[in-house]
Design brief:
Rossmann fold; 442 residues
Length: 442
């Protein structure tokens, strides 16, 4: 007879004190659990960033179900099509013909031809040795006025090489063509959310008289193509490095990696580097540091010693945020992360030395499916997964850094934490909505 095991499972192997945690991978790769927190962006949301692009997914019906629902939930079914792979296609070996004829049929039945089409083969095409390069050559020759973007819905490569998410973020900019570079045009590459207009980075670009472009702000395909004239690409998230380096090699654009972080000196160094590149006077960082101190102190007066939990989907560098908050007297008790990026090693070592009791929890370990999701005391969470795993209605609803950056980002984070502490949210309702920041009909 089956027995319910909820509450009887040990946390061992799914959680470790940071003093006993391995860097950069604290948990072994094995069978994984997928939580109910869906605010992170998937490949459908990311592909929609190219204005007026049409996405076509080629896979079996069960795999297509998820991406179809994503497009429908964001009211974008008109920009989305599928081609179903059936058993006879595998047995007959006509995969290339299926894709070419299927894409052609879809395009011929659209009311108007899209400027770009993102074609998503899947893992079955790798297994079958499908000649995908030939498929793209034929499609490009058949429709020379359409940009064909190479996507992949490829779950078998999540742990080898670049992931489908990283690959698509690189291919998002593949339509940009070589043109005279404009010294007054600057791109942000890799972000899905717009960067906060009040941050110091935007201020410096404005001081230089430059136009700041980002794909999330492009309303037309022509606006998107104009990103190809920018002489400089800035990346603020680790996932932006691969596309920016690709553009540097392909179009000759400069690239500066200025990651979102929470250390005052590190932020100041990045802003100084950008000011030097843009040939403008550096900012008065001392005054901005004082603003951060005041904002954090104000938040601490409200939040007090309430336990705080942070997850990696909210902030790419959760250890950096944990360190900042602990240095300012907050009670950070948990970080939910399955691995750590190289940028976090210094913060990891600092936390091991100064807060060895800080707990590191996996988000995908199979035990996370049955471990209790309620903490008896009031908890403030930063991120949807942290809120889900602790059952708290008090959380900062954020993914991918929320567009925050620099000293202004720290001040706004302090404000968001205070707001989250004071106002309950409907956790169950919010975290089931896919792609935070996208339109949702749920």
């Amino acid at each position: 007879m089956l027995k319910k095991i909820h509450g009887l499972v040990s946390e061992l192997e799914a959680a470790w004190p940071i003093s006993e945690t391995s860097y950069p991978v604290p948990f072994p790769s094995q069978l994984e659990y997928n939580s109910a927190a869906h605010g992170t962006w998937n490949i459908v949301h990311i592909g929609m960033l190219i204005p007026d692009a049409h996405q076509i997914y080629i896979c079996t019906g069960n795999c297509n179900r998820g991406v179809v629902l994503t497009a429908a939930e964001m009211n974008a079914s008109h920009r989305f099509s599928t081609i179903t792979v059936k058993e006879e296609n595998i047995l007959d070996g006509d995969m290339e013909e299926l894709i070419i004829d299927g894409v052609t049929d879809i395009l011929e039945h659209l009311d108007r031809k899209p400027p770009a089409v993102i074609v998503f083969p899947s893992c079955v095409h790798r297994f079958m040795g499908c000649d995908i390069p030939m498929v793209y050559r034929v499609l490009r020759s058949r429709y020379p006025d359409i940009y064909f973007v190479e996507g992949y819905m490829d779950c078998i490569l999540q742990k080898a090489g670049i992931t489908p998410d990283q690959r698509l973020r690189r291919e998002l900019y593949s339509c940009l063509e070589a043109q005279p570079l404009n010294s007054k045009s600057v791109n942000i590459i890799g972000n899905t959310l717009r960067v906060d207009k009040d941050c110091e980075l935007v201020e410096l670009v404005g001081r230089a008289g430059c136009e700041l472009k980002q794909i999330s702000a492009c309303k037309t395909f022509e606006e998107y193509l104009s990103m190809g004239e920018s002489y400089l690409n800035l990346t603020l998230l680790p996932v932006g490095k691969i596309p920016a380096e690709t553009l540097k090699e392909r179009l000759g654009m400069k690239h500066l990696y200025l990651p979102q972080c929470f250390g005052y000196e590190e932020i100041a160094g990045y802003l100084e580097l950008l000011a030097k590149e843009l040939q403008v006077a550096p900012l008065d960082v001392k005054e901005r540091m004082e603003r951060c101190e005041a904002a954090l102190q104000k938040a601490k007066e409200v939040i007090g010693d309430t336990p705080i939990v942070i997850d990696y989907t909210a902030i790419p560098r959760p250890l950096g945020l944990a360190r900042l908050l602990l240095e300012h007297g907050f009670s950070v008790i948990r970080v939910y992360a399955d691995s750590f990026i190289p940028d976090e090693e210094e913060d990891f070592r600092w936390l091991q030395a100064h807060n060895p009791q800080l707990m590191i929890y996996s988000t995908i370990h199979v035990k996370m499916r049955v471990l209790p999701r309620i903490i008896e005391t009031k908890v403030l969470a930063i991120g949807q997964k942290a809120a889900y795993f602790t059952g708290t209605p008090y959380f900062v609803n954020m993914v991918e850094g929320g567009g925050l950056y620099g000293f202004s980002g720290i001040c706004k984070m302090a404000e968001l934490m205070t707001e989250a502490f004071l106002e309950e949210k409907d956790t169950e309702d919010l975290i089931k909505r896919k792609g935070l920041g996208c339109e949702s009909c749920i």
